[in-house]
Structure of Rpn family recombination-promoting nuclease/putative transposase:
Amino acid sequence: MKKIKDEVNRVNDENYFANFISVEEDERKIRNTYYANGVEEGEARGEKRGEIRGEIRGEKRGKEKALLETAKNLLKYGMPINDIVKNTGLSKQKIKSLQ
């Protein structure tokens, strides 16, 4: 029994096992780094998608606002609603709501 105990103590004192533990720690750090990089990449993609969606919505709202302003001005100058519909693509109801 003492012989086995001595052998276990000898093996535990060797640098090989110290490196083995170190490798496990390195692998854990690498996994954590990959995870963190994945999270950062995912956040960057999400931010980019959000920016693009926001730009598209803003452009759409801006175009609609400009069309409504144009339709309002055309109504002031007496242009028939049907002509405004043809030229702006706005619905009759939307144009009538501007009157």
